[in-house]
Amino acid sequence: MGSRAVTPEQTTMSLQTETMELSAPGERAVLVKMLAAPINPSDINMVQGTYAILPALPAVGGNEGVGQVLEVGSRVTSLKPGDWVIPRDAGLGTWRTAAVCPEEALIAVPNDIPLLSAATLGVNPCTALRMLLDFETLNPGDSLIQNAANSGVGQAVIQIAAARGVRTINVVRHRPELHSLSERLQALGADHVLTEEALRRPEMKELFKKCPRPRLALNGVGGKSATELLRHLQSRGTMVTYGGMAKKPVTVPVSALIFKDVKVRGFWVTQWKKDHAHDEGALGEMVAQLCALIRGGQLSAPACEEVGLQDFHRALDGAMGPFTSAKQILVM
Description:
The structure is a single chain. Helix content is 31%, strand content 22%. It has helices at residues 41-48, 115-119, 124-134, 152-163, 178-188, 203-210, 223-231, 254-259, 269-275, 280-295, 312-320, and strands spanning 2-5, 17-20, 29-38, 66-72, 84-87, 98-102, 106-109, 143-146, 167-172, 192-195, 216-219, 238-241, 263-266, 304-308, 327-331. Helix 4 (152-163) links the parallel strand 8 and strand 9 (167-172). The relative contact order is 0.15.
């Protein structure tokens, strides 16, 4: 049996559970019991019909999660019963109790890492690692600046950068619990935590006496926040945009392009996975790197709230609330 979230309209968020019979896996398919699946902003965008890829309706929500293989088809070679697996790509539909999936749609992950780390491995940590490695060569002692630092990607960036000796300047929105948030990010390894308003203050000059100007900026917000990140980049530095939570365009000052020769790039982990679909080692190596950090205590899951699948409406409300402090995880 599987539980399915159905989206009958693309313009409004309409979800419901549905019980369905699952067929036995074919010779190159596997039966998976889903264990846990997060609710990410991209999942909500997909349900709303505003994401870059949209499934045919009715569809199962959720693009990320971890499951356990229960049964394999006769010609499956890469998976066996008991393996933990995560989706190779978006669109699998993880908000359900069980699924029959093609072998090639899944990749095995070690089952000796925490469940919540496995459930949140495939999107945010992968995004963070690729942005840290693929756009600028950052050496120990170098710095980067990022907004949305308390997001899932932001927390992963902090931890992976700290493990590599790269300093992070982390920008968050002002909020009532700013002090406790700053302490939490610093506990993860953040070197500096400041508000978006602080980016415009003279105190930034003092900060850059202790920390080199960043060569890399990571933008998950857009609008004025992105413009402020650009102001603090080194000459010939790179700003990578991976999200647009402000729903406003990125405005690049002409002076930054001409006099600082900054580079403005975009990144979408789904596209990276598509580009490397035939490179079996690329995704496996990335997952192995992240799992090694998890085992070494250098990368933990973001703060999470576990919610039963039957209470998915409560989880959605939590995921869409202002100043969200915990990632909502559906547990099956």
